[in-house]
């Protein structure tokens, strides 16, 4: 999944929505979880999303926001998913040094693990 697509999917889990306004062509606008229009109006939905939502894959602060949501939903699953993303498998006994490595996960690793956790809740 591309960073842009992952960012869009995570934004939806955090409450961002898209609305269409105008006649033809339709113009896309993104609405924040607080109900405010964000970003710019665009006929290209990908560009509308890109300019309006946090970059969970590259921005450490944004990745922590989505990590917090995933932990709220299912903390154990999030940690398991993060291990899978980071190392390709899950450790049954997580040593302190491994926990430290998880804490230093990249924004992209956090975003992927959060997506895996949130999307499994459907």
3D structure, described in words:
The chain has 122 residues and is α+β, with helices and mostly antiparallel strands. The chain is built from 5 helices and 3 strands, in the order αβββαααα. Strands 1-2-3 form a 3-stranded antiparallel beta sheet. The radius of gyration is 16 Å and the shape is elongated. The model has no long low-confidence stretch (mean pLDDT 89).
Keywords:
3-stranded antiparallel beta sheet; 54% helix; alpha+beta; elongated; 122 residues; 5 helices
Percent strand: 5-15%
Class by alpha and beta content:
alpha+beta
Helix-strand pattern? HEEEHHHH
The main sheet comes to:
3 strands, antiparallel
Q: Unreliable segments (pLDDT under 50, ≥5 consecutive)? A: none
Helix proportion: 40-55%
DSSP helical segment count: 5
Terminal CA distance reads 19 Å
Globally, the shape reads elongated
Rounded mean pLDDT score: 89
The total beta strand count reads: 3
Give a brief description.
By secondary structure, this protein is an alpha+beta fold. It has helices at 3-13, 45-50, 60-87, 96-103, 107-119, and strands at residues 17-21, 27-31, 37-42.
Secondary-structure topology with pairs:
Blueprint: H1 3-13, E1 17-21, E2 27-31, E3 37-42, H2 45-50, H3 60-87, H4 96-103, H5 107-119
Antiparallel strand pairs: 1-2, 2-3
